Amino acid sequence: xxxxxxxxxxxxxxxxxxxxxxxxxxxxxxxxxxxxxxxxxxxxxxxxxxxxxxxxxxxxxxxxxxxxxxxxxxxxxxxxxxxxxxxxxxxxxxxxxxxxxxxxxxxx
Length: 108
Prior knowledge:
- The radius of gyration is 15 Å and the shape is globular.
- Strand 1 (5-9) and strand 2 form a beta hairpin.
- With 108 residues, it is an alpha+beta fold.
- The chain contains 4 helices and 5 strands.
- The strands form 2 sheets. The chain has a 3-stranded antiparallel sheet with strand order 1-2-5. A two-stranded antiparallel ribbon has the order 3-4.
- 44% of the residues lie in helices and 17% in strands.
- The chain has one domain (5-99).
């Protein structure tokens, strides 16, 4: 069965991205693993999330969700990271709608 795809257009550069409409359990686990691989704990056994941990998790999420940019499938992560920050933020917001992520972890 072919996966449903959501098409979005970035507001500033007008680039077309194809996003998976949902994640499989395997894809969700890959994202979670990328987050937890670099978590450390403080003296009270509370998790501490570094900036590197968060960016690696975000990179993994982009890699799992974004299918193509302007129908190209190579260098997706680098292409997104090199976009106008407003387009980047827009893409992350759209990805967070799909994954349901972005609200449960707050960096202190």
